[in-house]
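DATA SHEET
Item: assembly model
Revision: 1
Owner: S.N.
Input lines:
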Amino acid sequence: MSTVPVRLNVNGVKHTLEVEPRLLLVHALRDKLALTGTHVGCDTSNCGACTVHLNGEAVKSCTMLAVQADGEEVTTIEGLGTEDDLHPVQEAFWNNHGLQCGYCTPGMIMAGAALLAENPDPSETEVRHALEGNLCRCTGYHNIVKSILDAAGRSSSEVSA
Amino acid sequence: MSVAEQPSGNVGKVMRRKEDPPLITGKGRYVDDITLPGMLWASFVRSPEAHATITSIDTSAAAAREGITAVFTGADMTDVPAPLPMAWAPPGVQVNNPEHWALAKDAVKHVGDPVAVVIGEDRYAVQDAVEDVFVDYEPLPVVVDPEQAIAGEPFVHDSLGTNRVHEWSLAGGDVEAGFAEADVVVERRVVNHRIAGAPIECRGVIAEYRPGQLTLYSATQVPHFVRLFMALLLGIGEDRVRVIAPDVGGGFGQKLQVYGEELVACWASRRLGVPVKWTETRSENMSVAHQGRDQISRVRMGAKRDGTITAFHVKILADFGAYNMILTPLIPSLGAFVMGGCYKIPNVQTDIVGVFTNKCPTDAIRGAGRPEATQMIEVTLDQVAHELDMDPVEIRRRNFIPAEDFPAATATGVVYDSGNYDGTLDKLLEHVDVPAFRAEQEKLRSEGVYRGLGFCTWTEICGLAPSRVTGPAGVGVQAGLWESAMIRVHNTGAVTVYTGTSPHGQGLDTAFAQIVADKLGVDPAVVEVVHGDTAIGPEGRNTYGSRSLATGGEAVCKATDKVVEKVKQIVAAELEAAPEDIEVAGGKFSVKGSPDKGMALADVAGVAYIGAVPEGMEPGLEETNFYDPENFVFPFGAHACIVDVDAETGKVKVLRYVAVDDCGNPVNPLLIDGQIHGGVVHGIGQALYERVHYDADGQLVTGTFVDYALATAAELPNFETDRTITPSPVNSMGVKGVGEAGTIAASAAVTNAVIDALRPLGVDYINMPLTPMRVWEAINEGSAAS
Ligand code: FES
Ligand code: FES
């Protein structure tokens, strides 16, 4: 199948890729750039495991073609923070047991980080609604919500244990 | 020993997880993240028919496509002589077990049954080529409804001449005599509908065959079982097969399986001489990865006027779908072992009939048999209470096995290890003010708001082991269910724990490190826990049935104790003291009473590896234990759920969920609460949202996450959790399992709450799933009683 060039700025690094026009952004990230932190959990845009930031906004990278992101800035979980310099949402997930198997986690963290960028002091209800497009089978969401509120600086005592 | 008596240790403390740093930074390694040199991709051609004869398969167009290496059908796999395994052979029970091939040979039995596999160079190319494999199907009559299937034709497997899989009973006492004594007998038809495991990571494999050596990466809970069966089915020495479960994105029982796709990938890699990768799509996962529950039961409970239960008789029709998977027919029996719940019932009987239908096979899904049993017990008990005009709390108290009776033998001879059911219920009632709730409920009803409170007081059987019960001579699982651990203290005093369990989100790396750190006087940070690789560490029995702590953790304890014994001897020799006078304190092994004189583990390891050990002792510092417990463990708890039901729309909203659990001594409370939260949502999900639905033609209606409704954060409340601690006498730590607890309890608590809310609207009973439509219909019919 014929390919087209696509320029992506991912986590601050510029790439030019030759891709099939139908290649999904998530597969460009995973298969072409070996950024495997962005996961795939469904084929119907329901699970949010593939959530990344496109120019700072949370998007599901399985709902976009790589070519649609041509020239844009993409941030993946790998670009959010590192082991030695965790993003507050990453740190909060660790401190609050916001993950179990970890599969939904990159998407949850990216969704949470995007929410806090837009609304630094969300209520519990706002957090829950912001996560409507992200599925987790392990945690029952309790500690995910708690983590995001914690990252927002809301004392976790405001959330029942 | 209770946790309160262990103030200084790591065990019992909240500790954030060792597992997390890679997972929160996108550096996890799940199967689909792995790429091997020269790797090809696989995609399966699957049946669109629920039941059909395959008359022809034309693979030529697919094979001719660019980038396609090969297309294989069942006819190509002639060097795999045996079908996929079913590992349950209960003594004295006949189980009809039709052949189940990794690629269908002549016929397909459910939608999604694999017919061929396409192998090629890229993820998308193989999916395209699947569309170019032309299969002619001659449709056969379809049976979807288990009650119709058990009645006769059409048969899923004609050669059997029946759809019946097996019959199995477990009885204690005499239920008919018990019913004769009863003042009231309540009978219900309890439908426990089919649900999916739905881990967010679908299944996936990479098989790499190199001459004489097969490596399989699989998103599995059971790498050791997969290795055994790959070796047997492919005729390769078990020693030459290595199965690796890397990071696994949730299992929930769905990944407790030996799947045909694993076999096909291994076989194709051997055939083609290159690694073969398959990543399941969600639609495939929804149609072919094994599902759970799907039981229709006739449930009878008899009680005296004072609420004392005299008899409980359950007749289960269990829908197994099209084939027996590895443990399919065993699953309802797991419920039978605790069919009396936490009550002293003198006469209990469970009769199980398994039946084939043209649907995806069922097998273990979180709770496996026990959520079904709990639903039957707890919902029926509330029905009896209502019949007797008794309070649901009161009828539970009246029938609890008293704390002083433990260990307690039930009517069927199962011995519960420990329990204090009044204790958990008391604690629950500290959180839920029932009189205040009733007053509020009354008031709200007058305002047209229908609020309900439901309870579930439950126990379950887990910690799967002991082999003498679960094994071939007992229940009939063709494997001992012990567990293993190996502890290696390195030269530097760092510690590696090799466990035979295979965690996939439970946090065992952290829990096991806490346990070992206390015994060896080191920081948990220097204890590495390794699992999920059959080439490393001892043979294992893996993770399912809430067994990993009670069996695997105890094996870790015992292996560590052996290390400690050796350490004490070395230290005693070095310090010229008696081994029995050496203790671990303040990070050192020292002589009792002189804590400043001692040796850190690193110093002891130095001695052990330099070989300066006492006369007759082996050098090195590494020990292994295989642990087979004497009994199962029986966690228990008391849960309450408060819901509002919108009488106009039938919509149920969970307002509060309170879970008081007792899983013995806690190792890490953070992990326990996490397991409860997730488990409860699995149960709430089944009660309110989730349902695998097939139409009458056997077409799967819920084939994606659009149609199969997993709960989201927006629908759920925060959970209130608390615990009591009743140690298990079965193991040295006094621990029990907690992985399935929430799921086992929650659906009954929710159902009872919804019924409680609906009573003023004339609804006395309703079966799950309590979707708006179902509830609305019940309200409009006045009653959905069967
Ligand atoms: S993979 Fe993108 S929403 Fe599920
Ligand atoms: S942590 Fe496993 S799916 Fe969310």
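QC remark: Chain B touches chain A through 59 residues (CB under 8 Å).
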